[in-house]
């Protein structure tokens, strides 16, 4: 069984927010609370520490009291953020989650750890793979670097090349991502204040 002290949380907050007019999703508020704080509340109790992958508003993220890691080459997509954090990871594994996911399960680590032993364990919602919710071994950083150096950026493609273990988590909201203005609006209608 994977122990929390061998896992650090990695919050991916380094995207350009193109589908939201270039806004930094970590600082958009949901029910009066910035998304980064929502995600921290759900993730931090599950792991030994947290790292935030960000490429802007760096000082603001640092004020949260966690290490902030930037991409080696800015805005390389989720893989760039994951690789940069894996290179700085103080633990064997990183529990990766996106900053725009308001319903990260409080037992995500425990559930993904049922796929051990493996270097890469990813969530699946019963319909499709969810590579932004997974356990990534720090040794995978080199493979991601090589993949990015070839000009590839597709997270799902890289993940499939690693033959990951898959854990189905079919909770209705577990993998909810708020990527667009419509997503935010729909979420607000479904879960009013």
What does it look like?
Helix content is 30%, strand content 21%. The chain has 193 residues and is of the alpha/beta class. It has a single domain (4-190), classed as Spore Coat Polysaccharide Biosynthesis Protein SpsA, Chain A (Alpha-Beta Complex), CATH 3.90.550.10.
Quick overview:
Helix content is 30%, strand content 21%. The strands form two sheets. The protein has a seven-stranded mixed β-sheet, sandwiched between helices. Strands 2-3 form a two-stranded antiparallel sheet.
Brief descriptors of the model:
21% strand, Spore Coat Polysaccharide Biosynthesis Protein SpsA, Chain A, 7 helices, 9 strands, alpha/beta, 30% helix, 193 residues
What is the architecture at the second tier of CATH?
Alpha-Beta Complex
Spatial order of the strands in the main sheet?
5-4-1-6-8-7-9
Instruction: Classify the fold: give the CATH topology.
Output: Spore Coat Polysaccharide Biosynthesis Protein SpsA, Chain A
> What is the CATH C level class, in words?
Alpha Beta
Poorly predicted regions are: none
In total, how many domains does the architecture comprise? 1
- Main beta-sheet strand count, sense and barrel state: 7 strands, mixed
Number of strands: 9
Any chance you could write out the topology, listing elements then pairs?
Layout: E1 7-12, E2 29-30, E3 33-34, H1 35-43, E4 50-53, H2 58-62, E5 68-69, H3 77-88, E6 93-98, H4 108-112, E7 120-124, E8 129-137, H5 141-149, H6 155-161, E9 165-168, H7 181-190
Parallel strand pairs: 1-4, 1-6, 4-5, 7-9
Antiparallel strand pairs: 2-3, 6-8, 7-8
Helix pairs in contact: 3-5
